[in-house]
Amino acid sequence: MHLRPRPVALALVTLSILGVSSCSSAKKAAASSDCGGTFKGVAVANLTDLSKDPGVSSSCSQTPTTLEVKDLVTGTGTAATPTSTVTVQYSGVRYQDGFAFDASWKGGAPIAFPLTGVVPGFTQGIGGAPGVAPMKVGGRRIMILPADLGYGAQGGGADIPPNTPIVFVVDLVKVQ
């Protein structure tokens, strides 16, 4: 699983969410452009069926600078916190070319782990942060992580080069 911990110094990189970035390279007036995808250049084949792999693809040439989230299904259960242990199903792809680097769906079963032990954007995208509501059990959310909230300058092994923005589509199954 690629959701391994990062060094503390890198994990403390910006905790503030400064606003919504756009993947459009046009002027600010065109900031609502989504690069032709479902959300900011990310397409999801199974938007609302949490019993199916979401089927994530992405191909946006721009580089996001802030955490972007969108609920595809709004959960109604327990809300996660940044220190929760969560059980999730997820798919992870590189933002700019859609390469699938990891997915719990491959193993067929949800995975449980503490949000304190993963990349900051994953913690903030599920547990909440300024401008980002915590995810609730029963929800499915797209999270676009800029490189500094993902694996940063060191990258995430062979599948995630340095300074690569990444995307997760996450189904929150349980909060412990």
Give a short summary of the structure:
With about 180 residues, this protein is mostly beta strands. Helix content is about 5%, strand content about 25%. The strands form two sheets. Strands 3, 4, 5, 6, 7 and 8 form a six-stranded antiparallel β-sheet that branches. It has a two-stranded antiparallel ribbon with strand order 1-2.
Question: What string, H for helix and E for strand, traces the elements in order?
Answer: HEEEEEEHEE
Q: Tell me which CATH architecture applies here.
A: Roll
Rg over alpha carbons: 15 Å
Distance separating the two termini: 20 Å
CATH class: Alpha Beta
Overall mean pLDDT: 82
Q: What's the structural domain tally?
A: 1
Overall number of strands: 8
Number of distinct helices: 2
For the sheet with most strands, the description reads: 6 strands, antiparallel
Give the percentage of residues in beta strands: 25-35%
